[in-house]
Amino acid sequence: MPSLRLGNTAPDFVAETTQGPISFHEWIGDSWAILFSHPGDFTPVCTTELAEVARRAPDFAKRNVKVIGISANGLDDHVKWAKDIEEWGAKFAPTTVGFPIIADQDRKISTLYDMLDEQDATNRDNKGLPFTIRTVFVIDPKKTIRLSIAYPASTGRNFDEIIRVVDSLQIGDKYRVTTPVNWKKGEDVIVHPSVSNEEAKTLFPEHTVHKPYLRTTPLVVE
Ligand code: BEZ
User: Is 75 helix (H, G, I), strand (E, B) or coil?
Assistant: First the structure.
């Protein structure tokens, strides 16, 4: 199967999850979705990541984003591990794992999403099988893949960055703008190159022209 690219439709699937069976596209509905794989249950980096995702639930809800985890473990392990995650998270703030985790023991969905890196010899479970790598997919309500990132097993993800990209994508879908390096919500954005100078005067009356191809503007968003 060719690898999934930005702009591809996220493959649909049915799965068992800690919140019951789902049909992925139906589960996404009119929301955005973050599908993120982790190498395995009862592993340290993953535990910190899932606690963080649980703790950030209001940040995802505010952006109309549903979050779903996946690893090649069974439901029983997921359920037991979720308790550990909550215990760990509680050291920092009350933590409830409120999002589903897909049980992908047969690696069908991990294979469909190219989440198994056969090349990475550091990324093997104790049976020598590849772990699901730390992949993140951001999927929009049309079920289009808008972001995909793969991290090494040794490095926990930065969910501030993933949320930052969701903000950028959502703003870019609504207004004719792009976002500059290290941008954060509330900061000035870039007028999209497709906006003519004439249009920019009306659309972004407070914009500044730094170079003919680099125009920035404040943007008030709700
Ligand atoms: C971890 O989540 O801690 C981890 C998982 C697989 C390999 C290395 C680290």
Answer: helix
Q: What is the pLDDT of residues 95-139, one digit of tens each?
A: 999 999 999 998 899 999 988 877 666 667 777 777 777 899 999
Active-site pick, 4, 35, 46, 190: 46
Report whether residue 196 contacts ligand 1, using a CB cutoff of 6 Å: no
Sequence-distant (≥ 6) Cβ neighbours of residue 65 within 8 angstroms: 31, 32, 33, 34, 166
H or E stretch covering 200? helix 197-203
Domains of the chain (ranges; CATH) run 14-156 (3.40.30.10), 176-217 (3.30.1020.10)
Indicate the top mutation candidate among 38, 45, 101, 123 to test ligand 1's pocket, ranked by most ligand atoms within 8 A of CB: 45
